[in-house]
Design a protein that fits this description.
heterodimer, A: alpha/beta, 3 helices, B: 428 residues, four-stranded parallel β-sheet, lyase (chain B), iron (chain B), Phosphomevalonate dehydratase large subunit-like domain-containing protein (chain B), PMDh-L-like_dom (chain B), lyase activity (chain B)
Chain lengths: 142, 428
């Protein structure tokens, strides 16, 4: 499927679909990436190295720093797929790319594509400044 | 949804900055703003009058790396810029614990922002400072509670800026023309009718925080419109409401009909459109919000924390009045007030800070008790009148919370255990 790239990069990783929006600050461990928010239904899961699927982020304006620091430490999501443009997540990717040449693709999907995503599977995200392509292998026969 | 991305149209001055003619630091800041504008679909940038920067709170090396790259590139803020809380109390060294390396990093980051020309205000409540954004003016503010206050109570216009965007907007003096800068995104979307809540309930500070929590949970990032609230709510009530709605949901703008400047009536608040959803709020809903924010049973209590967002001059006055008569706090209870150095200076002048200290309160400035190691490590159960503090502290600090009113905080501090005001939460 085709998405709108908010920040470029390439990644292939297992999908992690969030059931609720997440605040990276106050909601994840900066050193490991793990979800620590006691109010989040997926507390204990880790977005590190996964293609994170979230409708949008929530809460604190410190989240860009926490996510960018996780990118610097190599414990961030490998890519993020969104339902709507999200400044917090995008800024983390912009700054990690500026400072460290680390690229974590951030892509917005159409509402139809986003809502049709499977809960599990291997996802390949390939985004340039202009285009983004996403392919999913969810193990099912096509 | 947009089908393609494109660069925003830039003025000649903005193009010069992007090309590096105002230095490498300004060019880096402009690249960040332009890429953000592109990602958000902005067709242009707008000038901002001021910035409030949240990036001075230490979260890791990335913060230092960005600010020092800007300094090395000769960047300076282009508009008046205030600073949010840092990770240290610079006026009371030793109050914030932590190892020397962490403290040195926190200080290096805070110093970096001052070196860029920002004012060392160190507060999450910049709207309590003398210079405030005027109605209808564009600003670039970070910190969710400051954003919602600027948009809703002041009627200024800021989108949800966070770390990095804030300082880059300050250095470039510009921001993407999207989101809450634009008229069409400022109309109300969800109605909360509060007229069934007994009028007396909103005399309590904590009712506003509880209401903010439930409105945040039900609104997400939509714009809520509130009706049926008493028309005499002061800024501290709206501060408590907004902070809770921003942290529990993602509310960056609300309209309280008859209270906030873009909501003289319901139709105006909704911009002539119909509400997407309607909620009726009852006293039982507020009680449920209180219970959701409370993780400990009534009983043991180790500490109390108020001033999230930062305590105002009026809140110092209210606390000083509550402690004026009666015994001092139990000596086993730590009672912390978080505030700004500017508000503390005023509370020192008028004697309210001294009155609070005499009762046993301790005062923290420049930072906050839920983001810096201040509470003693043996603290397990902490009372607060802040829904925001109650929402974040269990995760941040690994403690249990009792959400209660300011008078209940004083009663409990004196008794050394949780004391409830039974009249406060009575459901008729």
């Amino acid at each position: 499927m085709i998405g709108v790239p908010l920040s470029p990069g390439c990644a292939t990783a297992p999908l992690l679909l969030l059931d609720e929006p997440l605040s990276f600050w106050g909601g994840t461990d900066v050193a490991t990436g793990e979800i620590t928010d006691v109010h989040h239904p997926q507390r204990g899961a880790s977005p590190a190295g996964r293609v994170l699927v979230m409708s949008g982020s929530r809460g604190s304006s410190s989240s860009s720093s926490v996510l960018a620091e996780q990118m610097r430490r190599g414990v961030s999501p490998a890519a993020v797929l969104l339902r709507r443009p999200d400044a917090i997540v995008t800024l983390a990717a912009i700054v990690a790319r500026e400072l460290y040449s680390i690229e974590v693709p951030i892509v917005v999907l159409s509402a139809e594509d986003f809502d049709a995503l499977p809960r599990k599977g291997m996802v390949t995200v390939s985004a340039t400044d202009e285009n983004a392509e996403i392919s999913i292998d969810d193990g099912r026969r096509r | 949804m947009r089908q393609a991305v494109g660069d925003p149209e830039l003025t000649a001055a903005q193009r010069e900055m992007l090309a590096g003619r105002r230095g490498d630091g300004a060019a880096l800041a402009m690249r960040v703003i332009v890429r953000l504008a592109r990602a958000l679909g902005a067709d242009r940038l707008i000038p901002v009058d001021s910035a409030h920067v949240d990036g001075c709170l230490f979260h890791g090396q990335v913060g230092i790396d960005l600010v020092e790259r800007l300094i090395a590139g000769g960047a300076r803020v282009a508009v008046p810029t205030t600073l949010n809380v840092g990770s240290l109390d610079l006026l009371h060294p030793g109050v914030v614990r932590g190892d020397a390396a962490d403290r040195a990093d926190a200080r290096r980051l805070m110093d970096g922002y001052v070196a860029l020309g920002a004012e060392p205000t160190w507060t999450c409540a910049p709207y309590q400072l003398r210079e405030r954004p005027a109605y209808g003016r564009h600003v670039a503010w970070a910190e969710s509670n400051a954003i919602v206050f600027a948009n809703s109570v002041l009627g200024a216009r800021t989108d949800r800026y966070g770390d990095f965007a804030d300082i880059c907007a300050a250095v470039t003096g510009s921001a993407p023309y999207v989101g809450l800068h634009r008229d069409e995104n400022r109309a109300g979307q969800v109605l909360f009718d509060c007229s069934r809540v007994p009028a007396g309930a909103f005399a309590s500070d904590v009712a506003w925080a509880a209401l903010g929590h439930l409105v945040g949970r039900r609104s997400g990032t939509r714009v809520p419109v509130l009706t049926g609230l008493p028309g005499d709510a002061d800024e501290d009530r709206l501060k408590a409401f907004g902070a809770a709605a921003a942290s529990a949901g993602g509310v960056a703008l609300f309209h309280a009909v008859g209270l906030t400047p873009e909501a003289p009536d319901v139709a105006t608040a909704f911009g002539g459109r119909a509400a997407e959803r309607r909620h009726e709020v009852t006293a039982a809903d507020l009680l449920a919000a209180r219970d959701e924010l409370t993780t400990a049973p009534d009983g043991r209590l180790d500490a109390i924390s108020v001033g999230t967002p930062h305590f105002s001059v009026a809140e110092f006055r209210a606390l000083a009045a509550l402690v004026a008569d009666g015994p001092p706090f139990d000596e086993d209870i730590e009672f912390w007030i978080s505030t700004s150095r500017a508000v503390l200076a005023e509370a020192e002048r008028n004697g309210d800070a001294a009155a609070c200290r005499r009762a046993g309160a301790r005062i923290l400035v420049d930072t906050c008790t839920y983001i810096a190691p201040v509470l003693r490590t043996s603290a397990r159960v902490v009372m607060t009148n802040s829904a925001k503090w109650a929402w974040y502290a269990p995760t941040n600090l690994g403690i249990d919370v009792v959400f209660a009113s300011l008078p209940e905080c004083v009663l409990s501090a004196r008794a050394g255990r949780v004391v409830r005001d039974p009249g406060l939460w009575r459901v008729p």
